[in-house]
Structures are given as C-alpha cells and as structure tokens.
Amino acid sequence: MPTEPSPKYLTMRERLRRRILELPIGAPISSERDLAQEYGVSRMTARRAVIDLTREGLLDRHVGRGTFVAQPRIELRLSLSSFTDDMRAKGKKPGAIVLEFGREQANDKSFFPVGTPLVTMTRVRTGDGVPLAIEETHLDSSLVPGYSVDDAEQSLYETLGRRYGLRLDSGEQRIVAVECPKDIANSLHIRPGAPVIRMDRKTLIRERPAEHTISWYRADAYEFTAKLLPSS
C-alpha cells in the first residue's frame, strides 16, 4: 500500500507553494539542500516537494541551472473554441504573426475535395507577445472571398462570423505528443526535440469541409481539459 504523506512534508510543500505564488515568473528557487535546512526537513522530503510542485506546473527544473518559477499553464478546452478565445479567457492579449500566406488547390490527399481552391497560411500565435503555438491552416477560399494576409493577422473564427456570417458546425480533432521539429522550435523559441502537443483539427460548415489546421502547442505552457459524460 502507498505510504501516506507525512504532516511535515505536507506543511513544507504548502509553505513552498505559497512562496512560489508570490514570486515573479522565472525567479530562482533555493537548492534542495537549502530548502531542507530552511524548513527543517530531510533533503529527500525537500526533493519530493519540488518534484510534486514541478508536476503541478508551478516550477521548471533545468539540469545544471537550477529550479525556477514556471510560466502559468494555459487551459485549453477541447471544443471548437479559438486560440483568441482561450487567450482572452486567461486575461492575455492574443496575437498572430503571419509567416506564410498563399493559395493552392486541394490534392487527392487533402481533407477537401480534389481541386477545391484553398487559402493557406502559417502563423505564430502569441499570448501577451510570447510565442505559444504555430498554426498551419488550409481554408476553403470559396467560403471567404477576399480573405487576405491582413485578415490572417486577426482571429480566423471571429472573421468567419463577423465578416462572412459563417459558423463552424462540427469538427474532429486528433491530439498527439511529439518531439518538436527544428523549424517549429525556432519559431516557438524552444529547443528542437522539446515536447510539443500536435493538434490536427478538421471542421465543417453546413456539412462541407471548411478548415484544416495543424497546430503545434508548447507542452510547457498548456494543460487540456474536457467535459466527460457517461457512456451510453
């Protein structure tokens, strides 16, 4: 049977948690040895508390550098919400930097019928100016006549609704954890091979393929939530 946490460990962890919440992002945390002396616990107990708080996303541990207060993670709802909505829900200013913008026709491997005219764009999505995700989007251009690179700097879903009177009806999303490719890592300001969350989203409007977006999210900045219902 698992061992119950000791009162001394729980007290130390909660005191350290309160301290972390009062410190700025990126502030260094004392070494495990110093924490053990400060809180009057064993080094093993101090290490356990640091590991637990790291798992909760409050701390970042870097071998050879130390432990630091982590950037708070952004809750990402598994729904047809937009990046812009998710940022605003967390009190952050959403942004988009357009890396590529063009047009092409769908081929036989596409989500869209062969020959469908498409708008294609690659964007860095930011929260308060910090790169958090890369989005590679294909959009049925017949649904959005006149859509331009200037529009790509704004929220796609808001533009669909406000300018074109369109609303996404449904979609399918596939999520997988992968190692970050070098080109994506450079745009996200993380090291190549760092863990990222790859999301493949396909959406419909009036039962017609409308959008296909592959997104790469920084794993250190996000946590996912989903509403669960009993199976029928």
TrEMBL record:
Domain (HTH gntR-type): residue spans on this chain: 6-72
Organism: Arachnia propionica
PROSITE patterns: HTH_GNTR (PS50949)
InterPro entries found in the cross-reference section: Bact_HTH_transcr_reg, Chorismate_lyase_/UTRA_dom_sf, Tscrpt_reg_HTH_GntR, UTRA, WH-like_DNA-bd_sf, WH_DNA-bd_sf
Keywords of the record: DNA-binding, Transcription, Transcription regulation
GO molecular function: DNA binding; DNA-binding transcription factor activity
Protein name listed in UniProt: GntR family transcriptional regulator
Keyword DNA-binding: yes
One protein family per Pfam: UTRA
Superkingdom of origin: Bacteria
GO biological process: negative regulation of DNA-templated transcription
Keyword Coiled coil: no
